[in-house]
Amino acid sequence: MHGCPIGLIGWGTVGGGVVEILQRDPQLLPERCGLDIQLKTIVTRRPERERAQSPGTAVVTDRLEILLADRSISTVIHLVGGTTVAKDICIACLDAGKHVVTANKALLAEHGDELFARAASRGVSIAFEAAVAGGIPIIAALRDGLVANRIDAIYAILNGTCNYILTRMEEEGRSYGDALLEAQRLGYAEEDPTLDVNGTDTAHKLAILARIAYHSRIPIHAIRCEGIQQITQADILSAKTMGARIKLLAVAKRGDGGLELRVAPTLVPLDHPLASVRRNYNGIHVLGSAAGPTLLVGQGAGALPTASAILADVVDVCTGRYQATASRFRFFSAAHDVALLPEDAELTGSYARFHVPDRAGVLASITQIFSQHGVSILSIHQGTPDAQGHATIEVVTHPLTSRSFFAAIHSIDGQQVTLTPTVTLRRL
Amino acid sequence: MHGCPIGLIGWGTVGGGVVEILQRDPQLLPERCGLDIQLKTIVTRRPERERAQSPGTAVVTDRLEILLADRSISTVIHLVGGTTVAKDICIACLDAGKHVVTANKALLAEHGDELFARAASRGVSIAFEAAVAGGIPIIAALRDGLVANRIDAIYAILNGTCNYILTRMEEEGRSYGDALLEAQRLGYAEEDPTLDVNGTDTAHKLAILARIAYHSRIPIHAIRCEGIQQITQADILSAKTMGARIKLLAVAKRGDGGLELRVAPTLVPLDHPLASVRRNYNGIHVLGSAAGPTLLVGQGAGALPTASAILADVVDVCTGRYQATASRFRFFSAAHDVALLPEDAELTGSYARFHVPDRAGVLASITQIFSQHGVSILSIHQGTPDAQGHATIEVVTHPLTSRSFFAAIHSIDGQQVTLTPTVTLRRL
Questions:
Q1: Within 10 A of A390 (CB to CB), how many other CB atoms are there?
Q2: A155: closest CA of chain B, how far (Å)
């Protein structure tokens, strides 16, 4: 049996999950892999309140320096949110010669270059399986399982809050606001949900996945990002009409023109595997040059699923395997820059909903303008006119450049064929 | 850059895939992880025929001893089928101090105890990601990603041949025989498909997954195994009627009474994630105590997907990570025995199709006998009678012991309520 005293900084939801797994089933890891992982020191802002629930003999303190000075602790679980104090604490741990296991995606997406280099210079490593898609072992799958693949594309649902809201809007006909309130009541959305619903959290996770897949530096601002705040019941119903569901989709796709990176609400056809990833689940669809398509689905957040990933990393570090990974895999320290695809060169299927007067020639005008711009239509649907004699025409296109598509939309709206500005969405 | 000369034994479909990946994209692994994997020696039964396509400077020979004597080769890709010669070759490699990377599931399922012990005694290891579900990194996910989970259950579609046949029977209304012929024509089924369609191949893979999940010895005969040869269009249509699809399902489930292990054609409800795993795809649904449900779907066979898994293992061995795994994880060498659940204590949903005369009282008799045996009915469907006045009654039960279910069926058939022996299937 190999004893592994570890430290924990931040005793919130996920930290509580780590403590729970280790306390509830102390024999699991010793039985499975001969490791006796002991929480030796817990650093928290409110040590008095929490000392009562302290696991075993752990020291609970608000003084980081006690943890840093303890040479018997070589691995620290870092569960501090944000990118300021969290960064300082991460650097302090690395500088004290400790391996860091973290779930903080924002920290790595924004300061990964600096932190990975710092870790390398100190001879330690940063493990982050828990930072993307919680309990789903996607980091290891992408880095190790698919190591012999060029990654042609990643399509992923990475934010459980957004997926829950979109699912409830679809299943229950709720408004965005009602679905958000329900998600908050159930603990699937934070009190301030901004970073989830505006796509930032998804972009952070995509930056980490793309860094591994393309062993490249991924500047976070290189990811074009839209959220779900503008999605209405009309959009949800339109998707249904067109045989699809709306998902907040993260996309990384390599092509001749460069790497395409974006986060946007997207129509996912019902027969695509990601369409059935529902409620608060996450799903990642990876296209590898050798393995072909691989799909992983599971719980992307929550105390126990995230703690499951944290402890997988702790085992990886305590066995020495992770150090072999960090010292060898390029994306940690020697990542190169990657050419990014300009926005108007993105090749994607698109969806448009035109609000038009119900009279002869309107449909012909629209299809003619599309044709002039080289836009090839995959399917088209015209609804029954309402009492005012207004109708809806919905169009899904074959993949084409954003440039051509938006030029066509601009031209249609400019000719006053449409009554209100045309609504557009992407389509997988 | 770290040079890794490796050997390959068996240059068939998968061996060809390994050669293709390394030749087509020689910069991938050096770029990603600083490893220069060089095929130094290839052992094949027909070296003359294949020498022409030899990659780079590889020696192609039919003499295993050349490979064994080469001390610069510490890792061997073992792609020899069967369990006799394949076992001898595996042992010869281990005895020569070489790590073995293999895709041979039958070999490990039947002789794993002996081979893992042999490897441990020689200070080398056996890697086998490619042995289960081809390109899907399920071995690593179960062993490492979910290391901090007790595995409550595994439900898996592990044989692409069977899944292809069942999908085509459902989608195209084909007979079992026609669908098998089509699968053979497309290369999804072998000329002699026996070990695929009778469930043996699935049982081998389940034995390996269960060994890892429960760090236990899994005697292959402990797995109750039925194939798909008896599945008819009537069964396929029945499944549809009951809102389900038939899949050849591998199940490992832990419970108070012991571990349940079986392979059987099973009705999978349409809303279960495994229902949408179609054609030749594999899918594994794992229920972990911390991570909750995780689903992995991908290509379970074929040259490139399997070679992708083989090379992932080679990288794992060449970085030294795999040795850290093999020396520490219990299932390799110190697996214990596990209590197995007796067959009649299995707790499972069930399906029955009764062929009955269309007269008053028949339905009442059936439901009454079920009730007497404590069988709780989830749903029931009675079809329109045919010209002979014969009708079909279909029943799906809530989970109950096989003992109670089959006692009820036996009693119903014994009372001559039914015209032909009742058809039964399991239901997830």
A1: 14
A2: 14
